[in-house]
């Protein structure tokens, strides 16, 4: 999907007089690189845990350590990818609302707060004791805050973008006819709803103390929500499935 979306963006640039969509291309490449780093770090942890680790308690004890450099690297890649996605949806919000500060500024404050919380969470991981689980209160406060902030950013931005498109179409309905904005709204709401729903599931599992949160975090959030959905919107529009 990453390759397909990149080819589509570059081909559109060559076949039209419009300039290349640099923000979208930059975000796509960055998210792909960060996802690759995340997957690579997870694979390295698996190999170390089951083949090379001599930690007391075996592989489970090793995988439970949150202060190892490879775990911090994985967490950094996830946090950065999340922030890149949040920044791009904030950029979409800015464009759709024509830079209206009353709309963009509150979401921007939330985004800046998520950057600070993300940095705090990574520092907490690095400073945690080797035997500290990921659910201890010192880590939980940072993690829950980060998840909550990115959930608010995505949900509110998606809602505001969809509302703006619907409202603009409604105001111009008597002037412009024959153009439905429903497909565009559906694409925006679908992409935002998938991410928000998975984030709610992830947050619920983490607060319940379930290690299943790692499955949602690594398998669902990383690939489906942050990689697949982003690229799929570009591909769907290019193939004419959505407008």
Automatic annotation (TrEMBL):
<feature type="transmembrane region" description="Helical">
    <location>
        <begin position="78"/>
        <end position="96"/>
    </location>
</feature>
<protein>
    <recommendedName>
        <fullName>Frag1/DRAM/Sfk1 family-domain-containing protein</fullName>
    </recommendedName>
</protein>
<keyword id="KW-0812">Transmembrane</keyword>
<feature type="transmembrane region" description="Helical">
    <location>
        <begin position="184"/>
        <end position="207"/>
    </location>
</feature>
<keyword id="KW-0472">Membrane</keyword>
<feature type="transmembrane region" description="Helical">
    <location>
        <begin position="103"/>
        <end position="122"/>
    </location>
</feature>
<feature type="transmembrane region" description="Helical">
    <location>
        <begin position="20"/>
        <end position="41"/>
    </location>
</feature>
<feature type="transmembrane region" description="Helical">
    <location>
        <begin position="219"/>
        <end position="239"/>
    </location>
</feature>
<feature type="transmembrane region" description="Helical">
    <location>
        <begin position="142"/>
        <end position="163"/>
    </location>
</feature>
<keyword id="KW-1133">Transmembrane helix</keyword>
């Amino acid at each position: 999907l990453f390759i397909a979306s990149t080819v589509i963006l570059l081909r559109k640039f060559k076949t039209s007089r419009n300039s290349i969509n640099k923000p979208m291309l930059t975000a796509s490449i960055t998210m792909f690189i960060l996802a690759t780093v995340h997957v690579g770090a997870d694979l390295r942890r698996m190999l170390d845990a089951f083949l090379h680790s001599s930690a007391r308690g075996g592989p489970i004890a090793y995988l439970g350590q949150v202060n190892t450099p490879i775990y911090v690297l994985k967490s950094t890649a996830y946090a950065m990818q999340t922030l890149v996605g949040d920044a791009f949806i904030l950029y979409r919000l800015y464009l759709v609302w024509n830079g209206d500060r009353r709309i963009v500024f509150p979401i921007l404050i939330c985004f800046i707060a998520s950057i600070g919380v993300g940095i705090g969470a990574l520092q907490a991981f690095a400073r945690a004791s080797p035997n500290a689980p990921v659910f201890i209160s010192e880590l939980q406060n940072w993690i829950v805050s980060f998840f909550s902030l990115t959930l608010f950013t995505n949900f509110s931005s998606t809602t505001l973008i969809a509302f703006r498109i619907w409202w603009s179409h409604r105001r111009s309905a008597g002037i412009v006819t024959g153009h439905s904005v429903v497909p565009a709204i559906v694409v925006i709401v679908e992409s935002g709803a998938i991410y928000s729903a998975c984030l709610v599931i992830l947050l619920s599992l983490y607060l319940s103390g379930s290690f299943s949160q790692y499955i949602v975090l690594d398998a669902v959030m990383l690939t489906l929500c942050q990689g697949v959905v982003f690229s799929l919107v570009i591909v769907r529009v290019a193939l004419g499935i959505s407008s």
